[in-house]
């Protein structure tokens, strides 16, 4: 068989069902091998979007997503989505083409060193120089991509290598269970928790793995400990739980931080320094236990006092056995903070009648319409903080947001990847008008694939988050406003359906109707971001923690 045939068979043996991307002439052998494969090629309109789709697929399934591009400009378009997967911990295989390496008649046309370009933003990057190496390279890529911390890997397949004959078979897929921590480390963590007066559990991005969900939920129930989540740890435990203190949407000074500041021990499960920190450590702060797959990376705001390293599920299960719920724990204060969060975060302005809609009302209305297992795929913008803070996630990975690279343009492609991975779920992309227009062409991809998908575009005719930062720094409003198309007609031009919200109170019913109708639906929602200053500058600056 050809090298390209072996590559496709190896991908099939790894359980690959979809490849997202845009082929070029250097991929023609691979394209021909895919033609009779069980793998479906999802042709996209931009390579960056293909990478985002593959990353969302990998995040939701735990299996490596795969995407494809040609050489040169096609490959360089992968750099943002590869960085997104690297910082966000999402397993993705990026496959790029290349000119013949044994004999080329085109000089340096379109040629850059793609492997060296990808090395700093992947866990592994190789050029395939011999087709007989494909079987072990593919197995190694998937093993590396899916091991902790999951992330992107890269293979470059030159045109002449793809066409040459080989005599190999794919390797069998293997799974290696990570080791647990030492008994001494576990005993020390259990001792710190049992002797604490006000312990807290924090659930971060590294804990957001399928194999860890049952262990963490069981620990919460058995211990009775209060807990909170980081933005990328949302939903590991249902945020309606009576001991949930919500999400650390900010790094300091929110109502949640009243509880964090009063805690004497915090066990932070799955912390990753790539995610914006949920709180800032200081010299006189609580004792922090770092429980994660990998040792802590120390910096000025994160320097844990004790570490429990290894398989998170195994270690949390063992701590559940070792830690007895303590009568000495003083949870009364955390209960009062939770009541304050209920009033000041989840209840504040959720019934506002102002139009354009304030963010709190938008979040509330969408939560009312979403089923518990429905998935939100957020782009990056000011609304991300509001959704992280005000939207209660009922199940894991039902809010896909990026609090690591924090890139714009990922919301719509991520939603497409999510819908392909989990077609039985309702999926909604939440985009600002700025981020939406960075990959809005993928509306055509969603329509062509016949997906049932809702896209909500929050319109403020500017880069809202940067305007908030600009105002907060005392600068004059400048350089951040733009014009927009008629989003309803824009959606219709792709064959989607478009709706514009014209009054407060319409959004919940409109979203429910879109779910019922099916197809690709776009809802334009005007948003009033004056609440940014009212809440994040004025209210939080002047707040007092409950006694």
Provide a concise account of the structure shown.
The chain is of the alpha/beta class and 547 residues long. It has helices spanning 3-13, 28-35, 47-61, 72-76, 79-88, 114-118, 134-146, 159-163, 183-195, 213-223, 256-262, 312-322, 332-346, 359-369, 382-390, 411-421, 433-436, 442-448, 464-472, 487-493, 507-517, 530-539; strands at 18-21, 40-43, 65-69, 92-98, 125-127, 152-158, 199-203, 226-230, 244-248, 265-269, 287-292, 306-309, 375-378, 399-400, 427-432, 453-459, 497-500, 520-526.
Description:
With 547 residues, the protein is α/β, with parallel strands linked by helices. The chain has 3 domains: 3-163, Rossmann fold; 183-340, TPP-binding domain (Rossmann fold, 3-Layer(aba) Sandwich), CATH 3.40.50; 349-538, Rossmann fold, CATH 3.40.50.970. The chain is 38% helix and 16% strand. It has 22 helices and 18 strands. It has helices spanning 3-13, 28-35, 47-61, 72-76, 79-88, 114-118, 134-146, 159-163, 183-195, 213-223, 256-262, 312-322, 332-346, 359-369, 382-390, 411-421, 433-436, 442-448, 464-472, 487-493, 507-517, 530-539; strands at 18-21, 40-43, 65-69, 92-98, 125-127, 152-158, 199-203, 226-230, 244-248, 265-269, 287-292, 306-309, 375-378, 399-400, 427-432, 453-459, 497-500, 520-526. The strands form 3 sheets. A 6-stranded parallel sheet has the order 2-1-3-4-6-5, sandwiched between helices. Helix 3 (47-61) packs across helix 16 (411-421) and helix 14 packs across helix 15 (382-390). It is globular. The N and C termini lie far apart (73 Å). The relative contact order is 0.11. The mean pLDDT is 95.
């Amino acid at each position: 068989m050809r090298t390209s045939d072996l590559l496709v068979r190896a991908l099939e043996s790894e359980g690959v069902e979809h490849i997202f991307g845009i082929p070029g002439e250097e991929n023609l052998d691979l394209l021909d091998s895919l033609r009779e494969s069980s793998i479906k090629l999802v042709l996209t309109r931009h390579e960056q979007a293909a990478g985002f789709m593959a990353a969302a697929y990998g995040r939701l399934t735990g299996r490596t997503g795969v995407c494809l591009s040609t050489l040169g400009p096609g490959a360089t378009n992968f750099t943002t989505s590869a960085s997104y997967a690297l910082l966000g911990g999402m397993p993705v295989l990026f496959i790029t083409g290349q000119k013949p390496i044994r004999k080329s008649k085109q000089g340096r046309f379109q040629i850059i060193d793609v492997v060296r370009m990808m090395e700093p933003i992947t866990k592994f990057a190789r050029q395939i120089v011999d087709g007989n190496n494909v079987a072990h390279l593919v197995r190694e890529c998937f093993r590396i991509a899916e091991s902790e911390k999951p992330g992107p890997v890269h293979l470059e397949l030159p045109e002449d290598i793809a066409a040459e004959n080989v005599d190999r078979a794919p390797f069998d897929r293997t799974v290696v269970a990570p080791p647990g921590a030492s008994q001494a480390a576990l005993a020390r963590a259990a001792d710190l928790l049992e002797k604490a007066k006000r312990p807290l559990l924090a659930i971060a991005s590294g804990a957001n793995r399928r194999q860890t969900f049952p262990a963490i939920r069981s620990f919460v129930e058995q211990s009775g400990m209060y807990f909170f989540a980081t933005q990328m740890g949302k939903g590991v435990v249902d945020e309606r739980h009576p001991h949930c203190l919500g999400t650390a949407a900010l790094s300091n000074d929110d109502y949640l931080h009243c509880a964090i500041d009063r805690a004497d021990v915090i066990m932070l499960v799955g912390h990753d320094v790539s995610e914006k920190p949920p709180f800032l450590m200081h010299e006189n702060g609580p004792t922090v236990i770092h429980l994660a797959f990998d040792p802590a990376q120390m910096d000025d705001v994160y320097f844990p006092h004790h570490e429990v390293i290894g398989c998170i599920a195994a270690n949390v299960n063992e701590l559940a056995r070792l830690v007895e719920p303590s009568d000495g724990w003083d949870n009364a204060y955390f209960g009062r903070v939770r009541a304050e969060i209920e009033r000041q975060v989840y209840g504040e302005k959720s019934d506002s009648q102002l139009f354009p809609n304030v963010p709190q009302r938008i979040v509330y209305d969408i939560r009312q319409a979403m089923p518990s297992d429905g998935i939100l795929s957020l782009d990056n913008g000011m609304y991300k903080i509001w959704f992280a803070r005000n939207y209660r996630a009922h199940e894991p990975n039902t809010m896909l947001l990026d609090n690591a690279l924090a890139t714009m343009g990922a919301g719509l492609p991520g939603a497409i990847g999510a819908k392909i991975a989990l077609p039985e779920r309702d999926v909604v992309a939440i985009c600002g008008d700025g981020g939406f227009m960075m990959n809005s062409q993928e509306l055509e991809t969603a329509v062509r694939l016949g997906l049932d998908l809702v896209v909500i575009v929050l319109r403020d005719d500017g880069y809202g988050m940067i305007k908030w930062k600009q105002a907060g720094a005392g600068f004059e409003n400048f350089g951040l406003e733009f014009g927009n198309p008629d989003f309803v007609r824009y959606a219709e031009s792709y064959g989607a359906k478009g709706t514009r919200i014209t009054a407060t109170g319409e959004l919940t019913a409109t979203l429910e109707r879109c779910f019922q109708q099916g197809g690709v639906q776009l809802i334009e929602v005007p948003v009033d971001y004056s609440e940014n200053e009212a809440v994040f500058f004025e209210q939080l600056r002047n707040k007092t923690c409950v006694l």
